[in-house]
Amino acid sequence: MNKDELIELILLNIERLGIVMAPTKLEQFAIINCEKFIGVYDPSSVTPFILAHELIHAKYGDKLRHCDNDILSCEEKRANKEAIILLWEIYKEQGGNASYFSNFIEIAGCPFEESITILREIEMNDENIEEITPCFEGNLRECAIHYISGFDVLNSIKVYDFLELYNLSYDLYDEAVKEFQQLLDQQNLAY
């Protein structure tokens, strides 16, 4: 399932709740008015996550906004959490798993850190979610060794792929490059 198909599925679910959704050019990505049963979205910028977020608001009939940017309200937190869970369930039903977590984030448009946190909470004992963070416990060197040991022949190292695989911050890019360089230098000495 690609991004457009996922958007269509979520729009269908919103409309099943009695909300009429109309595409238009917006400053925001999407807005739903649960009292008037109408909503609008910007098809050029909306993501499945944003529409799923609005679907959750429609599901609960949320009407109260505390302010223009009320991301800390209970309703917003609930909408974010349940949208991530909904999208993850759809992704898994379509054959996805935690091995392709970055693909899930790319297709669904979910916030990465929040998704990791929420999915760890709900699937702590599930084997698939454990694959998101294979071995990182503060030792970048062990992760680098683990990473390169998975290759028969290593022509190049894609550092960003490495960081994503081990759920590491991109801030560690320079340190990872140094670690791989040290391992390469040691390997050259061993021959």
Explain how this protein is built.
The protein is mainly alpha-helical and 191 residues long. It folds into 2 domains: 1-124, no CATH class; 138-187. Helices cover 54% and strands 6% of the residues. The protein has a 3-stranded mixed sheet with strand order 1-3-2, covered by helices on one side. The longest helix has 20 residues, at 74-93. The protein is elongated, with a radius of gyration of 21 Å. This is Phage protein.
The percent range for strand residues is 5-15%
The amount of helix comes to 40-55%
Order of neighbouring strands in the sheet with most strands:
1-3-2
How many discrete domains?
2
Low-confidence stretches: 127-135
The best one-word shape is elongated
The helix-and-strand class reads: mainly alpha
Count of runs of 4 or more consecutive helical residues: 9
Please give the alpha-carbon distance between the first and last residues.
47 Å
Q: What string gives the helices and strands in order?
A: HEEEHHHHHHHH
User: How many strands in all?
Assistant: 3
Average pLDDT level: 82
**Largest sheet descriptor:** 3 strands, mixed
Kindly provide the radius of gyration, computed on alpha-carbon positions and rounded to a whole number of angstroms.
21 Å
Oligomer state equals single chain
